[in-house]
Amino acid sequence: MPTTTTTTSSSSSSSSSSSSSSSPAIQIRAHPSRHRALHATRALPAGQTIHVFPSPLLLLPTRAHLSSLCAHCLRPGHPRACSRCHAAYYCNDACQRAAWTA
What we know:
Elements: E1 3-6, E2 26-30, E3 36-40, E4 49-53, E5 80-81, E6 89-90, H1 93-101
Antiparallel strand pairs: 1-4, 2-3, 5-6
């Protein structure tokens, strides 16, 4: 199922409206703090679909579900706490090792 990114508020920037509607509405930019983020390339009205991703970019379980899902494969069940940090939960040793190298 494709993932849709939708704007949630009107942009307050006063960018020029001369940009082409065929140009991408977003771009991925690197930041000095070593992360990447999506940035709008022009002002976008609230509620406008700006891009449809073919698969999710991020899947983050809620805090209430962290101890009932494997942190690597997201398999539900009764995973055990990580032997190093005790904060993540894994369904088995293979998933724990795979997560450490990912």
